[in-house]
Amino acid sequence: MVGTVSAERSARAPRRLRLSVHRLYPLIGIAVLLVVWWLGGAIVAANPDTAAFSNFAPVPAIAALFHLAVGGQIWPQALASLSRIGQGLAIATVIGVPVGIAIGRSRAFQQMTHVPFQFLRMISPLAWMPIAVMAFATWDGAIVFLIAAATIWPVTFATANGLRKVHPNWHKVARNLGASPMRMLWRITLPAVAQDILTGVRLALGVAWIILVPAEFLGVTSGLGYAINDARDTLRYDNLAAIVLFIGLLGFAMDSCCLALIRRYAWHPEN
Amino acid sequence: MDQAVRSIRVEALAHHYGRARPVLDDVSFVVGKGEIVAVVGRSGGGKSTLLQLIAGFARPSTGRIFVAEKPVVAPSPACVLMFQEPSLYPWMSVAQNIAIGLDFAGRGRQAQGRVAELLKLVQLEEWADTNVQKLSGGQQQRVAFARSLAPEPEVLLLDEPFSGLDPLTRVALQYEVREIARRIGLTVVIVSHDFDEAITLADRVLVLAGRPGRIVGQVAVTIEGTRKRETMEFRRIRAQLADLFHTADQGVAALAAAG
Question: In this structure, are residues B243 and B80 in contact, taking their beta carbons and an 8 Å threshold?
Answer without folding.
Answer: no
